[in-house]
Amino acid sequence: MPDTLFASQPIYDHTGKIYAHELLYRHEDGITAFEVGDSVATSEVLYNLCTGLLDYVEHIKLPVCVNVSTEFLLSGLFLPLAPEHVIVELVERIEPTNEIVDAIRRWVAKGFRFALDDFEFQDSWQPLLELATIIKVDIERTPFEVAQQRYEELRHLNVLWLAERIEDEPTLNSYKELGFDLFQGYFLAKPTVVEGKRVPSAAATQLTLVINQLFSEEPELYEIVAALQTDPVLVVNLLRIANSPYYGVTRKIESLKEVVMLLGLEPLRKWVLLIVSVKGQAPEKTKFVLTRAYMCSELARKKDPFNRLSGPAFLVGLLAGSDVLLGIDKKTFLRDLNISEAVRAAVLQRGGELGDYLKAVEAFEYDLAMKTPLEKHGDLFDVYQQCHFLVNELLSNVAIEQ
């Protein structure tokens, strides 16, 4: 049964083309964004947008509009999506203090665009007018005559005017004739619930090895990759994000190092913080899949003195356990990942040299579970003990949710 990921309502321009999509928080149990809070709602929407396995993908071709909380605006952080892909909506609940206005200036300097949502032309919001890209007028709360007056007074501003809650054609035509640029409402399109398969996230890495490495004063690529390898659910989520349309991957990904280099340090920091804020993962599954991944990597290292396949072999072992970690069919999960064909073939068909490493580890796992004598596996038991110990040591440094 598909999961509810979020809802999406299009915003149209005066020619009838879709200009952007507003993303709305939705929960199967009917919990509202107001009940969970703006920060949690926005985190879940963005997380599901870039990691969920979607059938409906129209929203990814255009900018998305999302709400953010006062706390997030003031935090010094920025959204993990590039500014050209997102429009930040400032809801009427936000009090535009001097501190908020200064924070928004910093966001604008980074390239982010802002929409003043349900704008009611209160004097306290005047400082934000020069920073806004869109003024959204709730036409149910603002009479047409007032909207007309305000539009005439402020038409010198370099902003787009959006009439929201359009319910019929005469109203649409009235605001078009007035000079408004954008339109949204049930008459044009109701919010569409976007369903798919929600990919679980990991809450295990908060204030742990991963966070420490990402936010160290002089972060090292090797140390970041090593830290990320402690959390397989985090890694598979980062793979989904790296393969989302917002990053436009063209080359085939072979290792976690490439994912880190593709995303870049700052977006990686933001994504990790967002991911760890959503949900948790069972520790035994984590240990099992990590041990398999490290065993594949170690086998590759032993076979190749140049260590060319150690990284890809780790990725193979990790992705081979995606069904265990996520409860999602491997073929479905890998379908949209831009991984190398060697990695894909190894995971799905156990093909090639990488597939040989995986087959050897899986055969060992089976005999170990069945308490079958392990002599035929040569030194694999030693490799297993080494990797099992390594995983336990690594995970002793992270707070796995029990």
Automatic annotation (TrEMBL):
Residues 200-390 form the HDOD domain. PROSITE patterns: EAL, HDOD. Residues 1-205 form the EAL domain. It comes from the Bacteria. Coiled coil: none annotated. This is C-di-GMP-related signal transduction protein, contains EAL and HDOD domains.
